[in-house]
Write a sequence for this structure.
């Protein structure tokens, strides 16, 4: 070699492995590292290892030991052997191999395609680096490093797999801010599950409403398992009774497995990484489908917009069940390796100053919150709470997730400038779950831009005409920035045509962060899309490139030809003495007699005396006349905790309107005990249905096992006594068909005419269940010889049975012995024997076609015999791996046309394998676990396919 340095040899070795993988699986874009696992990461089987060794010997002109085929676990192991054989390498240079790393370990995980790859990248680069600083309610701190997060998540992943979680199944996360949430989130992703964050009950007086909403979410998400915490586990059990598909309610501690080494499913960028249920401020919550690709695109775009640097520190108290807290703060910090200072939302609500002091203590540079959080800080009148406070490091104070108040911005700037706060740090932003979280951001350091417009032209015609600040009747709107890099926004009228600048219309958007639709909700998904554009449900206008949000489309009230925006009205009413701030709902409701729209104000108050209540009504009327020129039709003053809100604190106007229309607003909420009693009673019918269904499954499983044990014992005895191989094989086929018939398992076989009659062949089939052997025996000609794993030879009962039918043994773990077994099989094929083999080698509970080993195809190429691809469908759902509980089902077998090898070379064997695998994949009805990206069908937006 021209450059014999270890780094040069390492690069050459990586290139050789990459070239081999391109031949083995050209569609699989694996990032090859020195510490990649030969088995798990690269899927290089024994024959491929031999091919790799031959190429290394040729490339480096050396001789490598044969046992290396079995012993090397990573490319680094192979590199050590190559360096030992390189005569031009000095002995003291060998120690340099330990320091060889990928250049990608600097910077950010730009090549990562899933959230788990991001975590793994950081674990490889800096496992001891602290990811999260958890702040306790009493000021204590718990630190979570990338390495400890990975270890804990792996244990939870193992626990989920042990409890039967399958890839693509949903897992509810009803957890407070803490380590358990992170372990549950990433453990679920590692297991291939779909996390569904839901919020724990907060207002016990509204327990029934909360439980109904969570029942709706978990049912829609088809959640099979709920992870919660010990304190509310009894309440969570009520959800298990209400949600028929929910099988288990567990805590993270109960999930942690002492043996975290489990086979993890391959994750694809287009796999669903999160179901983020919308807050439901304008209707029932809908599950926004967000893939790994969506989330990473949004995180990277927000990073560019905010101009993230390694010196940034993120401070957050936002709930982890909310997209702004989960994706924006936690996942964003994880991606960029920013220190994340994380507080409990309860700690902030009780003591808002703790948020500001956390920014002070940790020199926070970025922190986000809804508008009400800034308001809460302003209500703290005691200046002693802020003595010594320094906010000078806070460079990006994002204000989003709800309408941004110009008054709040002005007052916050004025109040906290003496404490070092820079008014240019205020950054009003706009986002929504349908765009992952972020959509528009202002340039860092610009500060808030407030547009002052004439009220009357805007309310009547939607024209945002600028006016002077002296105009006492003006409207104020805040600029929420410009679209994130790679994203687009437009404003359209009712006919779908773009409007001119400063004209209000419907805001639409598109970009790589955009969802493909709502989970299991085709109607809502269809309404979401307008061609390539997504409807945000918000009104807005554009001025000088900035987006100005004006209100939710479903909340706008049209009265006397004017648009009334509830938010401004609610904020003004909330400032009335005696009204609970942020506990006011303004909405339209039809008159029960005339059917005309009425303007209703529902406001919470603790006042009880009639005179005081009348004064409050008078003040509300006065404000209404000032703002909209007309008094409301009805003012409903209600007790505290009546106006309904979302999990993020937004007013649920539609739900509050329903309360008003049903007269519930005049009633007090039932006691907690009574609510729990009603919830328990309503669970009886689902519980009875579930019990009957389980009883039916148990009866069938007992019958099936009894039948199998009797059939197996009789068959074993007869096979042990019957003379002649042909007779024994015919009897096994008869026994297998009889077992399937008696167990009520229909077997449908297609393509038997494709089996050659006058020449040997190798039949390859997918492997999904322990039933596959019985199914193939029942469906195929009795002349076939089966290849079975070597381990069965050590067990008395299988050894006698398999020996009597002359099965061929294959060693799956010793590569050298495996090659010798292949040589013996080749001799059998050349002597006229036909072979049935399952080239996946093993199977798991999770559906999906695994990569094929090359052995059978090398044999076919050398013997010049055809490959017969066979797709088995249905056995996995009847009897899954690691489960001994059979269920009813139908099995079908599709026998493909013979595929003949084009030659005996390595490349021809690979082509033969790929053709056979593609044929089986087409008919087996399971996903491709070899692909690194979703199939064409999987990538279609939800409006073009059934989300179920």
């Amino acid at each position: 070699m021209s450059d014999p340095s270890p780094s040069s040899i390492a690069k050459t070795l990586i290139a050789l492995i990459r070239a081999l993988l391109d031949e083995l699986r050209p569609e699989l874009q694996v990032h090859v590292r020195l510490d990649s696992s030969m088995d798990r990461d690269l899927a290089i089987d024994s024959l491929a290892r031999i091919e790799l060794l031959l190429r290394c010997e040729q490339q480096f002109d050396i001789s490598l030991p044969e046992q290396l085929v079995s012993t090397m676990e990573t490319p680094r192991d192979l590199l050590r052997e190559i360096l030992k054989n390189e005569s031009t390498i000095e002995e003291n240079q060998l120690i340099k191999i330990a320091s060889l790393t990928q250049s990608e370990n600097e910077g950010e995980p730009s090549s990562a395609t899933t959230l788990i790859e991001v975590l793994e990248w950081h674990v490889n680069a800096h496992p001891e680096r602290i990811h999260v600083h958890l702040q306790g309610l009493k000021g204590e701190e718990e630190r979570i490093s990338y390495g400890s997060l990975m270890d804990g998540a792996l244990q939870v992943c193992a626990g989920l797999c042990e409890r039967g979680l399958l890839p693509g199944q949903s897992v509810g996360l009803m957890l407070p801010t803490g380590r358990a949430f992170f372990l549950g989130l990433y453990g679920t992703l590692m297991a291939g599950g779909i996390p569904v964050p839901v919020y724990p009950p907060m207002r016990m007086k509204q327990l029934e409403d909360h439980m109904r909403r969570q029942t709706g979410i978990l049912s829609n998400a088809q959640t099979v398992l709920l992870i919660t915490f010990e304190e509310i586990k009894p309440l969570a059990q009520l959800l298990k009774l209400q949600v028929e598909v929910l099988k288990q309610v567990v805590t993270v501690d109960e999930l942690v497995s002492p043996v975290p080494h489990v086979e993890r499913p391959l994750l694809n960028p287009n796999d669903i990484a999160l179901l983020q249920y919308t807050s439901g401020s304008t209707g029932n919550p809908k599950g926004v489908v967000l893939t790994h690709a969506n989330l990473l695109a949004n995180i990277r775009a927000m990073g560019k917009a905010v101009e993230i640097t390694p010196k940034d520190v993120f401070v957050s108290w936002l709930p982890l069940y909310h997209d702004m807290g989960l994706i924006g703060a936690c996942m964003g910090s994880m991606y960029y390796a920013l220190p994340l200072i994380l507080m409990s939302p309860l700690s902030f609500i009780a003591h808002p100053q703790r948020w500001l002091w956390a920014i002070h203590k940790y020199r926070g540079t970025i922190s986000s919150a809804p508008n009400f959080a800034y308001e809460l800080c302003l209500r703290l009148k005691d200046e002693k709470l802020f003595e010594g406070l320094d906010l000078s490091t806070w460079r990006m104070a994002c204000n989003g997730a709800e309408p941004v108040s110009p008054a709040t911005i002005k007052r916050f700037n004025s109040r906290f400038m003496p404490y070092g706060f820079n008014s240019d740090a205020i950054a009003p932003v706009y986002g929504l779950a349908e765009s992952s979280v972020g959509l528009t951001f202002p340039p860092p350091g610009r500060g808030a831009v407030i547009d002052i417009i004439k009220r009357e032209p805007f309310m009547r015609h939607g024209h945002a005409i600028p006016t002077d600040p002296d105009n006492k009747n003006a409207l104020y709107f805040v600029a929420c920035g410009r679209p994130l890099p790679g994203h687009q926004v437009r404003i359209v009228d009712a006919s779908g045509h773009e409007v001119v600048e400063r004209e209000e219309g419907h805001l639409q958007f598109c970009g790589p962060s955009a969802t493909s639709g709502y989970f299991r909700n085709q109607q809502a998904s269809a309404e979401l899309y307008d061609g390539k554009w997504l409807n945000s449900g918000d009104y807005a206008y554009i001025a000088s490139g900035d987006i100005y949000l004006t209100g939710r489309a479903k909340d706008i009230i049209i009265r006397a030809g004017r648009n009334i925006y509830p938010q401004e009205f609610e904020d003004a009413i909330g400032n009335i003495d005696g009204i609970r701030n942020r506990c006011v709902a303004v909405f339209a409701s039809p008159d029960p007699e005339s059917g005309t729209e009425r303007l209703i104000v529902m406001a919470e108050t603790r006042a009880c005396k009639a005179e005081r209540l009348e004064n409050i009504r008078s003040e509300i009327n006065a404000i209404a006349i000032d703002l909209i020129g007309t008094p409301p039709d009805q003012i409903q003053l209600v007790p505290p905790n009546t106006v309904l809100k979302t999990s993020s604190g937004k007013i649920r106007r539609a739900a509050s309107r329903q309360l008003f229309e049903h007269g519930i607003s005049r009633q007090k909420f039932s006691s907690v005990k009574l609510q729990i009693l009603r919830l328990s009673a309503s669970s009886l019918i689902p519980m009875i249905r579930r019990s009957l269904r389980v009883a039916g499954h148990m009866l069938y499983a007992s019958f099936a096992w009894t039948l199998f044990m009797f059939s197996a014992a009789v068959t074993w005895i007869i096979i042990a006594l019957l003379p002649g191989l042909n007779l024994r094989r015919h009897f096994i086929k008869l026994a297998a068909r009889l077992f399937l018939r008696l167990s009520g398992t229909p077997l449908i076989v297609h393509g038997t005419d494709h089996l050659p009659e006058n020449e040997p062949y190798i039949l390859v089939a997918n492997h999904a269940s322990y039933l596959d052997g019985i199914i193939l025996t029942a469906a195929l000609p009795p002349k076939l010889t089966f290849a079975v794993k070597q381990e069965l030879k050590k067990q008395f009962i299988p050894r006698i049975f398999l020996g009597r039918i002359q099965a061929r043994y294959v060693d799956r773990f010793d590569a050298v012995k495996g090659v010798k077994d292949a040589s013996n099989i080749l001799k059998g094929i050349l002597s006229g024997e036909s072979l049935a083999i399952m080239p996946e080698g093993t199977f798991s509970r999770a559906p999906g076609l695994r990569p094929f080993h090359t052995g059978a195809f090398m044999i076919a190429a050398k013997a010049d015999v055809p490959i017969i691809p066979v797709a088995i469908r249905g056995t996995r759902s009847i009897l899954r791996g690691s489960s001994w509980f059979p269920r009813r089902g139908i099995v079908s077998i599709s026998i493909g046309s013979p595929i003949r090898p084009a030659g005996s070379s390595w490349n021809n064997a690979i082509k033969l394998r790929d053709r056979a695998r593609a044929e089986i994949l087409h008919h087996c009805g399971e996903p491709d676990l070899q692909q690194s990206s979703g199939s064409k069908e999987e990538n279609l937006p939800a409006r073009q396919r059934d989300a179920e």
Notes: The two ends are 56 Å apart (CA to CA). Residues 684-721 form the longest helix (38 residues). The CA atoms of residues 578 and 636 lie 14 Å apart.
